[in-house]
Amino acid sequence: MPAFLCTTCGTQYPPSDQPPAACVICEEERQYLPPSGQGWTTREALANSHFNAFHQYQPNVIGIGTQPKFAIGQRALLLRTPHGNVLWDCIALLDDATVTLINGLGGIQAIAISHPHFYTTMLEWSRVFNAPLYLNAADRSWIQRNDPAIKFWDGATHALLPEVTLIRCGGHFPGASVLHWAGGAHGRGIVCAGDTLSVTTDRKWLSFMRSYPNFLPLSAREVTGIAKAMAPFSFDVLYGHYFDRVIPAGAKAVLEKSVARYLAAIAGTARKEGE
């Protein structure tokens, strides 16, 4: 039986003769259904019409994303740390070329995902690479396919590997998280942010939303909580959830000024042009 994928968000559902009546991820206010309505495909059908592309940002940081764009359009990141390879976030398509390339680079020792919009075909990735899946326990109700490979973590942080830490920021989802690699970027530190910390179009700022497609902002309390969660960590580079959304230097300062700008904007105290 096929395991159907939602064409709007890429979430994979348990195998069944017929697709589900609706995608519960897209029916919720943080996502959306397009005017054309609910659509479904399978991983096999997707592989016949799409392929994965790769971009090496640094020798040990490789982006993996599907072309043409599918569903939300995020790209995953393969982090090649001295203590093992980590896949950060997930994409729906896992094709033969991707398996060959990743196995040639040493496989995957752990998979961690920022939030439910990027769960997609996470169990397929876990099984192919025999890698445990680390998800924040606060978001467990959004999992559509349970499996023993899923390892839930609680608390403010979780040490995934030496120098690799998962940080719960909340905001976008209760368990929305980022990954901090202290040794990344030649020791300057990197953060893999998904869209928990969303890189803006000009790559000079970050923003914070409950729903990006539906333009629902976060509260001051939630954004202050994100800033507090990130405060103990040093980092210079930040990777957003699209291939081109990268802040290559000074990312910690960008986060701090972005929090201040956001809080001033929603409080009505931001300076207007010409003042």
Which tags fit this structure?
275 residues; alpha+beta; Metallo-beta-lactamase, Chain A; 7-stranded mixed beta sheet; 6-stranded mixed beta sheet; 20% helix
Largest sheet: 7 strands, mixed
Q: Span from first to last CA?
A: 63 Å
Structural class by sheet pairing and helices = alpha+beta
Number of helices: 6
DSSP strand tally: 19
Q: Given this structure, which CATH class is correct?
A: Alpha Beta
What helical percentage do the residues reach?
10-25%
Mean pLDDT: 97
CATH superfamily: Ribonuclease Z/Hydroxyacylglutathione hydrolase-like
Summary, kept brief:
This protein is of the alpha+beta class and 275 residues long.
What does this structure look like?
By secondary structure, the chain is α+β, with helices and mostly antiparallel strands. The protein has one domain: Metallo-beta-lactamase, Chain A. 20% of the residues lie in helices and 27% in strands. It has helices at 24-27, 43-49, 96-104, 122-129, 220-230, 251-267, and strands at residues 5-6, 40-41, 51-58, 61-67, 75-81, 84-88, 110-112, 133-136, 150-153, 157-161, 164-168, 177-181, 190-192, 198-199, 206-207, 209-211, 216-217, 237-239, 246-247. Strands 3-4-5-6-7-8-9 form a 7-stranded mixed sheet. Strands 10-11-12-13-18-19 form a 6-stranded mixed sheet, with helices on one face. The protein has a two-stranded antiparallel ribbon with strand order 1-2. A hairpin with a 6-residue loop joins strand 14 and strand 15 (206-207). Helix 5 packs antiparallel against helix 6. The longest helix is centred in the C-terminal third of the chain and has 17 residues, at 251-267. The mean pLDDT is 97.
